[in-house]
Write a sequence for this structure.
């Protein structure tokens, strides 16, 4: 759905985006993570056809962002990082205005506005003035605006920035709903755990370069050099560790006090993981639970940006 090829943007002497390549399938939810000034907004603006790349290009739903910007605009919904100021305009008028700009016929507009208001939980604010909305509501309204033409692809630049925890959760719920509608979403953030539970892919950008990208679990493995397993046993953890140390693919095994479990760094694949559990049980270890530790994006981010992964 999105293919980025060697995308580059220079501002005078500064290279804001450098040789960026990325491929996203339909339905992918891609978390675009990076510190301030990394080049997230610049990349998203190029994809949204608002900024011309210095070189390289990208296609969205098969349309080229440089050669076919109009066609690209019809299939994307872009949410900028800053919400513009709109005086003397009501919520429904604001949405109606954008629906008209997307050439949605007058007779359908009423319906469309109602639908997006409902989706973003703003029905009660239909007749309020935009400037009277709270920040969280404005953010939701901005998201509603990006949805009026039912785009296949959403480009969201930090949709949850500056929101309180509750408003964050609301935005997150909304994003999950959009995900279930089959949209392809590229979402930027520097708040990592926020993206963890609904992104299937992530990429980390630093100083204009995509330092790492791929499936969340894959990246985790790459960064850690293996997967981490937590095994709880009813008794004799030391004996279990001794046994583990004789097995193949074990990078380390030790007692994890925090989880009161054995923490194993493991280099094997799914089949090897299964074999590991079987051997423990066959050797009389009383396994109570056996878990693969889920990704901690924060940890990935710190490692990647500290240059641990090259
Ligand atoms: N219009 C511009 N002219 C010159 N330099 C710019 C311009 N816009 C951005 N930059 C520079 O390009 C780099 C990337 O900026 P960008 O806004 O893309 O970062 P970002 O990852 O979105 O950061 P943030 O997390 O703060 O939003 C920064 O060094 C920034 O100073
Ligand atoms: Mg930005």
């Amino acid at each position: 759905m999105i293919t980025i090829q060697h995308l580059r943007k220079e501002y005078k002497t500064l290279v804001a985006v450098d040789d960026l390549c990325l491929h996203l399938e339909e339905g992918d939810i891609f978390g675009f993570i990076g510190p301030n000034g990394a080049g997230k907004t610049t990349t998203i603006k190029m994809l949204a056809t608002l900024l011309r790349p210095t070189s390289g290009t990208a296609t969205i739903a098969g349309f080229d962002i440089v050669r076919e910007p109009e066609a690209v605009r019809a299939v994307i919904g872009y949410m900028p990082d800053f919400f513009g100021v709109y005086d003397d305009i009501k919520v429904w008028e604001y949405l109606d205005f954008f629906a008209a700009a997307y050439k949605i016929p007058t007779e359908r507009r009423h319906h469309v506005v109602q639908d997006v208001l409902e989706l973003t939980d703003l029905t009660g604010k239909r007749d309020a003035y935009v400037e009277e909305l709270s920040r969280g509501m404005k953010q939701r309204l901005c998201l509603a605006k990006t949805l009026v033409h039912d785009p296949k692809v959403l480009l969201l630049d930090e949709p949850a920035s500056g929101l309180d925890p509750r408003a964050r959760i609301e935005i997150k719920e909304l994003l999950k709903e959009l995900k279930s509608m089959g949209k392809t979403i590229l979402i930027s953030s520097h708040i990592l755990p926020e993206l963890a539970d609904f992104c299937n892919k992530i990429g980390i950008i630093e100083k204009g370069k995509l330092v790492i990208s791929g499936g969340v679990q894959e990246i985790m493995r790459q960064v850690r050099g293996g997967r981490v397993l937590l095994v709880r046993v009813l008794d004799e953890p030391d004996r279990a560790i001794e046994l583990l140390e004789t097995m193949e693919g074990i990078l380390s095994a030790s007692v994890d006090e925090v989880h009161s479990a054995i923490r194993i760094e493991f280099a094997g694949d799914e089949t090897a993981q299964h074999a590991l559990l079987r051997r423990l049980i066959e050797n009389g270890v009383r396994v109570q639970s056996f878990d693969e530790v889920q990704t901690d994006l924060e940890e990935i981010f710190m490692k990647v940006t500290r240059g641990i992964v090259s």
Summary: The chain is about 35% helix and 30% strand. The pocket of magnesium ion (ligand 2) is lined by residues 40-41, 81, 157 (CB under 6 Å). Residues 2-220 form a domain with the Rossmann fold fold (CATH 3.40.50.300). The first helix runs from residue 40 to 47.
